[in-house]
Amino acid sequence: xxGTKIYGASDDLIEFDGDVRGEVDCYGTDDDGHPGILIxxxxxxxxxxxxGKADRAIWQVVVVKEGTLFDKLNSCDDEDDNPHxxxxxxxxxxxxxxxxKEWERVK
Length: 107
What we know:
This protein has 107 residues and is mainly beta. The chain has one domain (4-99). 0% of the residues lie in helices and 44% in strands. It contains no helices and 9 strands.
């Protein structure tokens, strides 16, 4: 098994490659101005992903909480990299991931 990588692609997609495969549309901020979307993974990892890292054409992946299979975060600082995104890397065994496109912090 290869594990899973989660990263941004183009300017409107979040890609899942490996044990969990697929893509989710993401368009910057939601209607309430919250940045990006939250990704909840079966191992307990929570990611916040948004486009426009440091006001450049780079996807930013922020690890809110590390789960048991989270391995590392490969940072990207170059718009010309492929992918032009930070990449969350997981050890083999991830079962699922959910994307929360709309979310609100409870105060």
